[in-house]
Amino acid sequence: MQIVVKASPQQQKAFLSKTWPAGCHIYWYGTDTLPEKADAWFDLSCEEEGPAFATRTHTIVFANAVLLTNASLPEHYVRINGWQGFLERPVLEIAATAHLQAVQAIMDQLNWTFTVAPDEPGMIAARIIAMIINEAYFALGEEVSSKSDIDTAMKLGTNYPYGPFEWCEKIGIQPIYRLLTILAEEDERYQPAPALAAEFAEYKITA
């Protein structure tokens, strides 16, 4: 099985941590000579850099596009949750409204489990985690406790693998802030907490 992937070094590491079938060969966009045809295409940099395989219309392309919707992507693109911390998980979140049969065939080849998410910004998991992170920043701004103590409390109290600030560090404050801002356009409950907005402003200055 031949797979073509466009990804940052950090995304490459997460991608390689998944379980792969025997005989699978991965070609890295920008490094390897790409085959004319491949069994699966992954555009993990799509959210930051735009579609890299827009002309590869002979097959579907799995795109890390948590903040977008399928309507804003090429017709053969299928959104996945490829954020850090989610791509490595055993169940892949996919918003496959028009290509479900093709998605199922490729997932069967890879022997990967997936769940179908709504074609909305944030899908399911990222939307929930972003809201949890936002609530943690509200608590931080109200001086309820420190970041480390809030992380510890959430892990011990809810058995989460990461605390909200650990999640934010893993995913990155920029995508979290952008997702909350997009969601807040439809529902003010997602309005970024002042402490989160302030930290994002500092990030933009130093980035």
Automatic annotation (TrEMBL):
Residues 122-196 form the 3-hydroxyacyl-CoA dehydrogenase C-terminal domain. GO terms for biological process: fatty acid metabolic process. GO terms for molecular function: oxidoreductase activity, acting on the CH-OH group of donors, NAD or NADP as acceptor. Pfam families: 3HCDH. It comes from the Bacteria. This is 3-hydroxybutyryl-CoA dehydrogenase. It comes from Sediminibacterium goheungense.
